[in-house]
Design goal:
Layout (H helix, E strand, L loop, with lengths): L16 H23 L6 H8 L3 H7 L3 H13 L6 H8 L4 H18 L1 H13 L3 H26 L8 H22 L8 H8 L1
Helix pairs in contact: 1-2, 1-4, 1-7, 4-7, 6-9, 6-10, 8-9
Length: 205
């Protein structure tokens, strides 16, 4: 994987010690996420992470016991981006019609692709380099989301709002179509401009 330039992530403003300590841990996690995403787990050293976060390795290990703990912290921090927002959860639990729920769901997924690409890279790194713990992590963090969506589709199919099909397959297709849209579009039309997230949501809906 390509090396990521080590640009500093620092803020020179004075902060109280407790706030500064928390901010330092956040900077370490952010730096680790960037490096792990673009260089992989084994291709990234704690020295590189410390340098990018503008801290010493000793400081890094005061916050995290080892490199693997830092990796899962970085992935967990980014995984929070895919948590269903409160408004969308309410729409799903109230079983509002697909024409209301689908645009919001697609917006969440396409925003992740366009604005949080490091999350997808970190998930790929986890599956490629961190088995079998990767499966347990994905099960804990993403299975509840996917199960909620699949259950919503199942009820929508029963009520005749969605045509007869397997709800699990439908959920998987929706996720993969949204998350891989940008990459597949480049393969199909290399010269054409990418659609905006709003246009992508409208077409998929």
């Amino acid at each position: 994987m390509a090396r990521l330039p080590a640009t500093a992530l620092q803020n020179g403003n004075y902060m109280p010690h407790a706030v500064k300590k928390a901010s330092r841990a956040d900077k370490i996690v952010q730096a680790a996420a960037r490096l792990f995403a673009y260089q992989g787990y084994h291709g990234t050293s704690t020295r590189q992470i410390a340098h990018l976060a503008n801290v010493s390795e000793n400081t890094l290990f005061r916050h995290f016991d080892h490199k693997e703990e830092l990796f899962w912290s970085a992935l967990g921090s980014h995984a929070a981006a895919l948590e269903l927002e409160k408004g969308l959860v309410e729409k799903i639990t109230k079983y509002e019609p697909p024409e209301v729920v689908l645009p919001k769901l697609l917006e969440l997924l396409t925003d992740t692709v366009f604005y949080r690409p490091e999350l997808l890279r970190l998930i790929a790194v986890a599956f490629l380099e961190m088995q079998p713990k990767a499966e347990a992590f994905i099960q804990d963090h993403f299975s509840p989301i996917l199960s909620a969506i699949s259950h919503y589709f199942e009820l929508s199919i029963r009520n005749g709002k969605v045509r007869q099909m397997d709800s699990t397959t439908l959920t998987a297709a929706l996720m993969m179509t949204s998350l891989t849209h940008a990459g597949v579009s480049k393969l199909i039309n290399r010269r054409g401009p990418l659609l905006s997230p709003h246009e992508v949501n409208r077409i998929h809906t």
